[in-house]
Structures are given as structure tokens and as C-alpha cells.
Amino acid sequence: MRIFTMLLGLLISSFAATGADMSNGADNFYKSDKVTQKKVTFKNQYQMNVVGNLFMPEGMDQNAKTPAIVIGHPMGAVKEQSSNLYAQKLAEQGFVTLVIDLSFWGESEGKPGHLISPEIYSDDFSAAVDYLSTQSYVDSENIGVLGICGSGSFVISAAKVDPRMKAIATVSMYDMGSAFRNGLHHSVTPEQRKAFIKSATEQRLVEFKGGEIAYIPGTVNKLDDATPAIQREFFDFYRTPRGGYTPQGEKEELTTKPMLSSIGKFMNFYPFNDIDTISPRPMLFITGDQAHSKEFSEDAYKRAGQPKELYM
């Protein structure tokens, strides 16, 4: 419960500290002088290398047992986008924090890059708990997980089968399964879904025969008069100095874009089924009261068991 109650207060205070203009107030590339950072690598259960940034409070007692939090980045992003900021702000408050690149993204292993695999993504969080549990300075009975955007659905999926995750929090969560199957506000028809799946399987065969990989639109690379408001928000972060980041060896124009041929794995992803089995471990859902993705946090909150909190 300590992680659950502290997370709510600390996340709110961290947002407040960034100033009133939330469109540009938070510094994604914030560097704290109150924490230490080091890069770590460990293997998930698929024997793939997962790369992360480990943050610790400056001067932390290495002989004490300190609570820890694993933090996951938005879908299509990498650990340098949003996750590092959350990790440093929470480490400043006394937590050991570990941000990871999901498999197939950023510095973590996985070929081809940008492949969708929610099962492996979820295991990456359990692997992070494995790593933290072996560190002498971490309280293995007080490890929580925090998922931002799409990672919110991955940490829930992981927590359902990993009771070592003692508290679960999400911020602006996307249920990636529902988002791909149904669209926002269930705007996608069954016929459209079937057509989407058909195009993915056709592309899969193209790649099997040695053809080029195709990607689905992530964040647009340019704005025009027809660009929807939601995409303009994404562009303002992922395609500007505010939050844009291109991992080494990647093409800037392909960042945020998953592989088309792998979307079926999201179509078959139902992270909120049996979410109530996480109880009595506490769950915290944070979302904006006008966020376009608010429906996912509300749905998860409705299905979750106690104790739980929805903060808007």
C-alpha cells in the first residue's frame, strides 16, 4: 500500500511542478541532480536482452531495502520519451526506479524492430522485477509497476500473472487490444476490422517472401489542414524537440510506427479480462478528464477489484 498511496501524491505533485502550461511545461529531457543513473541489461524469459535505465536517489543507503518501481514507455516510443522523466521525479522522492525499452523497441533486443508482441512486452516487466529482486538494496516485497499509454495495458497483463508486482499504476492508459479492434469510442466496424486484419496477413506473406516491411501510421511526419486534433497532439511531442527522440540506428521517419504484419497480436490482446484477479493488490488509474483515451482507464477501473482509485 505504501507504493500505491505515495504514487498518487508524487505523480500529482510532479505534474504540478511543471507549471500551468502543460502543453510545453514538462521537460521530457529533464536531468535531475538528485539521482544517479546507470544503464542495465537483463534477459526476459525469451532470453532476449532488455535494456533499461536504473535511477537511485543520490546518497541512498545501499545497505537498506528501498521500494522500487518499474516504468514502461508509451506504445511506439522508447524509454527516453516520458519514462525517464517519471523515473527521475519518483527517484527524487526516494524510490529506486527502472525504465525499460520494450522488446523490439529502442535499445532492447528483438528483430525485426517495431514488431508487436504484447505477450513479450508483458514479460519484459516481469523480467524487470526479476532484475530488481536480485539487487541487495531493493525491497523485493515492495516493487510496483507504472505503465504510460500503451504500457498501461502491458503492466496490467503482467500483473495478472505476477503477484510480485505489489502495486499497479497507469497514466493516460491505452488498452492496445481494444484500440486496434474497436478504435476510440468503438468507431471501427467489424467489417473494417476484418479488412485491417486481411491487409496485415497479406503483408505478412509479402515479408515471408522477402519483401519490404510495411508499417502502420504512428505519429504523422508532417501536419496539413486535414490532420486530426489527436495527431496534432502526438506531433507536438514526438515530432518536435519537445519529445522527439531517434534511437541509434533508426530512421527518424519510422519512429512510433509498428509493423503492419504484426497487428493481429493486438487484435487478440485482452488485458482487462480477469483484471479483478489482481485484487487485493492496489491499482491506480490516472487520466485527464478530457483525454481522448479516458475510456480505457474508466473501463479498467470499472472492472478492477478493490482497492482501486481513478484520478482525473
Automatic annotation (TrEMBL):
Q: Which stretches are transmembrane? A: none
Task: List the source organism.
Answer: Pectobacterium parmentieri
* UniProt keyword Signal present: yes
What molecular function does GO assign, one term?
Answer: hydrolase activity
Tell me which domain of life the UniProt entry assigns to the organism this sequence originates from.
Answer: Bacteria
Q: Which InterPro entries does the UniProt entry name for this protein?
A: AB_hydrolase_fold (IPR029058), Dienelactn_hydro (IPR002925), Polyketide_trans_af380 (IPR051411)
Q: What is this protein called?
A: Hydrolase of the alpha/beta superfamily
Coiled-coil region list: none
Dienelactone hydrolase domain residues are 62-174
Keyword annotations from UniProtKB, A to Z? Hydrolase, Signal
The positions making up the signal sequence are: 1-19
Pfam families given in the database record: DLH
What Gene3D superfamilies does this protein's entry cite? Answer: 1.10.10.800, alpha/beta hydrolase
